Amino acid sequence: MIPFNKPYMTGKETTYIKDAVRFSKISGNGQFTQKCQRFFEERYGFKKCLLTTSCTDALEMAAILCNVAPGDEVIVPSYTFVSTALSFIRQGAKIVFADSRGDHPNVDADRLEELITEKTKVIVPVHYAGMACEMDKIMELARKYDLLVVEDAAQAIDSYYISPATGEKRPLGSIGHLGTFSFHETKNIISGEGGMLTMNDERFIYRSEIIWEKGTNRAEFFRGEVNKYGWVDIGSSFLPSEIIAAFLWAQIENIDQIQHRRKQLWNTYYERLKFMDKNDLYLPTISSYATNNAHMFYLVCRSAEERSALLTHLKENGILAVFHYLSLHLSRFFEGKHDGRKLTNSDMFSDCLLRLPMFYELGENDIRKVVESIKSFYDGRKSSF
Ligand SMILES: *Cc1c(COP(=O)(O)O)cnc(C)c1O
Questions:
Q1: In the chain, fewer beta carbons within 10 Å around the N or the C end?
Q2: Is 151 near ligand 1, meaning CB less than 6 Å away?
Q3: Is the CB of 54 inside a 6 Å radius of any atom of ligand 1?
Q4: Within the chain, which residue ranges are assigned CATH 3.90.1150.10?
Q5: Which residues contact 265 (CB under 8 A, 6 or more apart)?
Q6: Whole-prediction pTM value?
Q7: CATH class assigned to 255-383
């Protein structure tokens, strides 16, 4: 069976974990945590990074930092992972779900303005498959209506947005006021569970460390800036242990190699399937303002029925492909809370999007096998008509 995902280990993870154990510093905010944070700050220009135990936690921190409270509205795409909405719901927000574009699961930035009311506080663009949303348009709306933008960049490490206006190329997660990343084992760079919050607006930096450390100013104390620390705000235990950060450091050291290989695999899929695009199926489109970090290789089938038949066909051929999100506005949790608007593109991707195996150790032969199997599926359909 070709699995859908296989976490890649660089080989140094246990070495660094042993180091952390030897240093006898295994709680959070030690050497490895600081090394990881500094790396991301320097490479991508985030004003401040904090490792978290997950992207979900980073989103919860973001919701607290934005002072989201009952009565506030937060605009979130319906086609996303539960956490994007859940973290704001926990602060009492009302979620207003936005539809996807027709040509991409990313939120349709041209249809966001109609969702903004006096109560809107935050917009949360999700960079699906690591490909950028239209950030110029979203940041312009934020300026016009005085909103905050939290980028859910869970899938978007090492990917960029290229401004159509200025040509400037900026890392995803560095454009909104806050950004969140995931190092879950299904992402490009991993630590099992893990995540990161990025601050791109200085206003948030001081408070972020306090929220991170259970509402205390402990980080300030350890830097020697105050001579005792105590309870100063709300917060939680959002910081990961040094064991996790040590693991992550091994991954970070190999980020270029990992990204290079994933892009090679992605391009191989694309080249081999290209002849079927817009004919039997739809391949991902990469907009001129987005780069591809090869987080995922998806295709879009013409119907739910066809997708389910293709998934079965692939499984019979020893290939584990999977579908992805189910529109959150139709979820069991949210059903009764939605305002009834139809989100047809989100529903279409829920029904028709399919993800192919994509991981560092996937071989060229595996890809050949997947592509052959997809071809044989569509050949079979044609001959049966
Ligand atoms: C993976 C993912 C998350 C959640 O990440 P965790 O680290 O597992 O909490 C949130 N949003 C998106 C878009 C994701 O892909």
A1: C
A2: no
A3: yes
A4: 255-383
A5: 294, 297, 358, 362, 367
A6: 0.97
A7: alpha beta
